[in-house]
Amino acid sequence: MRESKVNRRYDRQFKEEAIRLVTEGNRPVVEVANGLGIHENLLHTWKRKYKEDPSGSFPGKGHLRPQEEEFKRLQKENANLREEREILKKALAIFSRHPR
Hints:
Helix content: 55-70%
Number of strands: 0
Shape: rod-shaped
CATH superfamily of the largest domain: Winged helix-like DNA-binding domain superfamily/Winged helix DNA-binding domain
Number of domains: 2
Number of helices: 4
Strand content: under 5%
Order of helices and strands: HHHH
CATH architecture of the largest domain: Orthogonal Bundle
């Protein structure tokens, strides 16, 4: 019978320590992954993400990387500015039809 898989969450410290064991300890990914009880593909993914952006990798559940947060903030600001522009266009149309 097959074991049911449980989605486990690993904190940033655990992930960084696993990566350190591979990079600084010169141990194979398979060996480290087996020792930690994780799949080797998961450790490869963590290693790749950490290599791409050491400070922004593994932001935690519900958090975005700094670049993504800034992008989201700018999208929101852009939407607000578009809405304000549409309101001003409508107001201009109303006041230009009825001069005082």
